[in-house]
Amino acid sequence: MRHTTKWQLIELKFSADRESEQPHMDQGMRINFVSPSDHVYTSSGFWDGGRSWMVRFAPNEVGSWKWSSSSGDTGLDGKSGFFEVHEYTGDNPLHQHGFISARDRGFVHDDGTPFFWLGDTVWSISAHAELPEWQRYLDYRNKQGFNVVQINSLPQWDASDADYRKPFAMIGEDYDYTRINESYFQYLDKLMEASKAAGMITAMVVLWFNYVPETNLSWGKEWKKPMYAKTAKAFGAYLSARYAAYGTVWLISGDTDYESKTAEQIYDAAAWAVKEASPYPALLTAHLNGGLFTPYSLNEKEWLDFHMLQSCHFSYSADKALEYADKDREYSPVRPVLNGEPCYDYLRLMDKNNIEDKLIDRDLVREVAWVSLLGGANAGLTYGAHGIWPWHREGQSYGPMNYGMPLPWEEALHLESSEDMARMKNLLEVLPWWELQPLEGVHVDKADIRVTASVLSEDQYLVVYIGESADVFLPASITTTYSGFWFDPQTGTREKAAIRNHTPGTVIKPSWSGDSVLVLENISNV
After folding, report:
1. Owning domain of residue 477
2. Is 90 exceeded by the pLDDT of residue 524?
3. Taking the CA of residue 305 as centre, how many other CA atoms within 13 Å lie in the half-sphere pointing to its CB?
């Protein structure tokens, strides 16, 4: 009998009776896994080259499991077996606590442990990263406290240099979406395995907009042959069968505008295929372009589990984050909201008047991050650095868009702004951050200083971000007594906050200049 531990991936291998030129399109298999408590999980198998088929599953209960297969192929049908699952004793959070799901305005692991989403943007790794590089990257980000990597399942259209690997067979210069190139996904398996071993959740884009017709037409770009509903459905099912057991979160679209019914139907086909092929309740969202909040039609999708906004790469990105988060929080049902693409460090500002080619810097990245989290997008944040997302190496070409020349990815990896994100997570993680509610009325005596405030736990805590050190004036509606500290988001330095006139209060500015975070706790009943 095979043995494994809870939430560890188990693989079952099969040999089909016949071969097909389009196996992921016209063949299939389903496997029922029965837990010790008699709960049935139905998973899909996936083709892995020749007559080889495979099933992946991560058991969530300790004890004796059994499984059985069904298929129209006699080689895949009627198989059965058993395996034993033991408690996990290591320190990988995905194995300790399980995969994540949405709950109210935040995320939780399977055992109920809250999950603060701190992601990094690595869109291009599927077709570009080599495994030793990827392991170096994961080691560094893991030590910092990042826990999500956002990737594209397919080659990223604006990555650096040429693709190293191709996901489909080619017809001339176009992909044949009916014929999977298994070697591409076998290499992606290695990258996914390394991510999970590092305790990282992969948030995977299923279909970036350039693979779907009638999207972002105003960009004036010409794309290769797109997918349609039939191939999108088959591809979504294939990805889910192959990668759901890694705890993958699914970004059904990438940079899309949701203005076309044709495109919407294709995304729907992929989304439902992902859900149906997964043995677990799959966690889905859509990655939108930088010009919109969640459209009404998208909010109505039953497959949508959380809102992912993109405040984009402008000097006014923080204003966009506030606007989009406010709109997304107005929707029903209540879902988590996070900024999945704030401005990327070292990328050229996309403002129309940026004739001097100014770059986004650490200060703007930090401002947008804090404003996002305290301004309504409080489920977490995904960071980005120009050089990492296109997986740029020294000497490579780059030029699909006027984003500026990227840094080599290993140099971009060490930009100080990523440490600012880690400090932000460390501070907020000790609070019930999923309860953060934007608060109006907190102000300073200078109109040009940005102030963003939130309360949480029924006013037990107040958290304020200011763009420059200044005295903070609390609104008259706050009649409780607070005590707290100032936090320097650039260094992690803390100092006790001096508060005058508790009803309403004035908090004296900290000793440093620059942006600051104020954390106050209600001590009225102490």
Report:
1. 439-525
2. no
3. 20
Inform me whether the pLDDT recorded for 502 exceeds 80. no
Cβ–Cβ < 8 Å for 279, 41: yes
Q: Do 420 and 460 lie in a common domain?
A: no
Average pLDDT of span 303-330: 98
pLDDT of residue 509: 97
Q: At what angle do helices 261-277 and 229-243 cross, to 10 degrees?
A: 30
Among candidate residues 379, 433, 436, 423, the one with its CA nearest the CA of residue 517: 423
Domain end call among 430, 450, 482? 430
pLDDT band at 27; cut points 50, 70, 90 = confident
Beta bridge partners of 117: 380
**Rounded Cα gap, residues 185 and 200, in angstroms:** 19
Residue with tokens 């004890």: 63
Q: Tell me how far apart the alpha carbons of residues 430 and 250 are, in angstroms, rounded to a whole number.
A: 27
pLDDT of 503 reads: 61
Domain termination residue (choose one: 384, 407, 430): 430
Q: Which helix (H) or strand (E) holds 24?
A: helix 23-26
Higher-scoring residue by pLDDT: 242, 457? 242
Long-range contacts of residues 321-326, Cβ cutoff 8 Å, at least 24 apart: 321/368, 321/371, 321/372, 321/375, 321/377, 322/371, 322/375, 322/376, 322/452, 323/293, 324/292, 324/293, 324/377, 325/372, 325/375, 325/376, 325/377, 326/375, 326/376, 326/438
To the nearest 10 degrees (0 to 180), the angle between helices 362-374 and 416-428 is: 20
Judge if 417 and 454 occupy the same domain.
Answer: no
**DSSP state for residue 209 in the 8-state scheme:** G
Give the C-alpha separation, 106 to 114, whole Å.
Answer: 8
Tell whether the model's pLDDT for residue 73 goes beyond 70.
Answer: yes
The residue written with tokens 């995304």 in the block is 267
Q: How confident is the model at residue 157 (pLDDT cuts 50, 70, 90)?
A: very high
CA distance 335 to 107: 10
526: confidence class by pLDDT, cuts 50, 70, 90: low
Concatenating the DSSP letter of every residue in 118-168 gives: EEEE-TTHHHH--HHHHHHHHHHHHHHT--EEEEESS--TT-SSS-S--SE
What is the distance between the alpha carbons of residues 271 and 274, in angstroms, rounded to a whole number? Answer: 5
Instruction: Kindly report, residue by residue over 258-293, the tens digit of the pLDDT.
Output: 999 999 999 999 999 999 999 999 999 999 999 899
